[in-house]
Amino acid sequence: MITNTELEYKGNLYPNKIVDFLQDADKLFFTTANGVILQITILRDSVLRFRYATENVFEPDFSYAINDDAGIGYNHLNVVKTETEYIVETSKIRVLVDIDTLRVQISDLDGNIINEDELGFHWEENYEYGGNVVKMSKITQGAESFYGMGDKATHSNLKGKRVDNWAMDQYAFGKDQEPLYKAIPFYIGLHNNISYGLFFDNTFRSYFDFAHERRNVTSFWADGGEMNYYFFYGPKMPDVVKSYTDLTGTPELPPLWVLGFHQSKWSYYPEKRVKEVAKKFRDLKIPCDAIYLDIDYMEGFRCFTWNNNYFPDPKKMVQELSDDGFKTVAIIDPGIKVDKDYWVYQQAKDNDFFCKRGDGPYMRGKVWPGECNFPDFTNPDVREWWATLYKELIGDIGVKAVWNDMNEPAVMEVPTKTFPLDVRHDYDGHPCSHRKAHNIYGTQMARATYEGVKKYVYPKRPFVITRSAYSGAQRFTSTWTGDNVATWEHLWIANVQVQRMCMSGFSFVGSDIGGFAEQPNGELFARWIQLGVFHPFCRVHSSGDHGDQEPWSFGSEVTNIVRKFIELRYQLLPYLYTMFWNYIQDGTPMLQPLVHYDQEDTQTHFRTDEFIFGKQILVCPVQEPNAKGRRMYVPRGKWYNYWTEETIVGGKERWVIADIDKIPLFIKEGAIIPKYPVQQYVGEIEITELVLDVYFKIGAESSTVYEDGQDGFDYKKGRYSLRKFRLRGKENELIIQQFKDGSFITPYKNFTFKFHGLPFKIANVEVDNEKVALKDLKLNGNNTIEISKDFTELHITGN
Ligand code: GLC
């Protein structure tokens, strides 16, 4: 046993004996003789916050990550002191705080240890910065696995890895490269079938070591600020992810078109080229909802300006694109060109809105426009001003959404790729240096953009994309995984990153389909599309310094495959929209890695490739050239192969056929999957039928379909349609009950039920206890019937 005093020589300082305890409603304060205070706040029975002060002082309590509406309130709290420890108990967990060392041990009420301090909280006085490096070390439990942490491009199970949270522009990053664009200091631990989560809410550069340096120790530390973490008890992983997502928030619903297909490139210009690309989509009948303008639309890369040579009449162009069903999305970067004749620069200068160096002058750095100054988005006045800048772009010209890039913030031609650390920030009235504000800068930019876009697209819904993000950014913006490469390895990386982001509370995410740097061949592009249509954000983007990367750029075979998969995405729009609804309502990640789906099955703990799209569709991308299929793990339960309708029982690895025109795809038995007809863009046609694909099961299963006006805010006033279907199948019988909520009237009158795997021939159909003649059901063979959308109970029997 190492004692605290023995460790001090290593330069670390440790709390010693607790000499004082105080309870103030939901807050408990434990003070040690050497001036450390541990504050435990009980947010919920399963969510606790741990904060540590040294020298008896806490910093002002402020966080950009925490959602104001996060649920709080607990049922039970009891504190008991024994000779050696304090015992804190809620209705879900028990926390022991050791009196001699301040170390903490958390267990469930059956006494199973969930998480325990090794050395616990300790710190190092750092005289380079004149502050503390705050540290925490925990004992790694037997067979413990680790997940989450945002966009890390490494194996989904982080055991044995060390990661670094420092937002960074990483052009053409590699597998395992650190750090990347985002800083999401949240992980999920799993051992003994118990999941818990830990969110270290500290925006300084932070590190997590998952049993990498020492096999039995998991530790995390930051270059400043407070040791301030939230603990979430599962015991199931979805409970953990939901609690973290509730604490840091979810977005509003995007307009439905945002879930369509998007085409981007650096850059489409001039206007003629933009229109050519748009037209080609319509000519080839490849659905597409959005086209992107990268930096070349601007005049000398000045944000909020237009290059009039390339785009003589942007408003007209945007309108014409819109008439053809395309939304225009434009990029906006944080660097404002130093140019006294440029209005944005002038306004910022006049109002003193730019970031300043520690010794006074404006922070200057080179980005696309050359020398730039950078707004301090951590200042609420700057955010308010920034929002007003969108008036012309969105309000007058009609651009529908904004893509924020380079907001780590990225600076060119300097080895650190970002601001010097002495740069000052307002941090919403808690002035600090860039060391503290760096990781949050991109989020605050996206937040300001969101406010602006929201204001000027009103009464429509806003849509924002960001490259950099900290925990909580998901409340304002979607994101993509940055400058990847057109390689097979990057297809693997994209799959892992998107799943990992979903586990980290941030579901609205996608990759540059096909790869940003370098040129994919047709096969890689097709395989990437097959994965990309199952990502919440689905956009092709490329650097454009090589060949074309449109769906038709790789010959007709690939074009046909790409069309088929984009069409599938459009058919699945109601399913995707429902996934989004579930995400914002209760924090359910839109994609579930298998371990999230079934943690009890230890086979899932080290899987990376397979994931559940929503709740009922299993997807596994093909990530190798020349493949005719692949081996994959099918999770427990019974599944229908989407392509062959053959059923298989999961719980083992198997070979699945998937030639170049297929991706392994399985539907959970009992699922009811809603589908729209294919449209070339959202809103092209009025939806006159909803297809419900029913995958027969002996037993019960529930499915949900959420719909609304597809844009606008009426859904917040109850104008939505939420249908819950309960399916019960027996050998010779199928019952589907419908429970409906919300006042939105869907435009279609009927459901077209398509039955898959029905083990009997339909003989009798009763709708709400009344027999319906088979001829009235538009019966199509043995598997399709059409009935009114208002039914409550559908009862089918065979002979
Ligand atoms: C950055 C972005 C990329 C964009 C380019 C030009 O590299 O990550 O998506 O195309 O800048 O704006």
Automatic annotation (TrEMBL):
* Domain (DUF5110) ranges: 689-757
A GO BP term here is: carbohydrate metabolic process
Q: Which residues belong to the signal peptide in this entry?
A: none
Glycosyl hydrolase family 31 C-terminal domain location = 587-673
Question: Which Gene3D superfamilies does the annotation name?
Answer: Glycosidases, glycosyl hydrolase (family 31), Golgi alpha-mannosidase II
* Residues annotated as domain Glycoside hydrolase family 31 TIM barrel: 251-579
Q: What is the name listed in the Swiss-Prot or TrEMBL entry for this protein? A: Alpha-glucosidase
Q: List the source organism.
A: Kriegella aquimaris
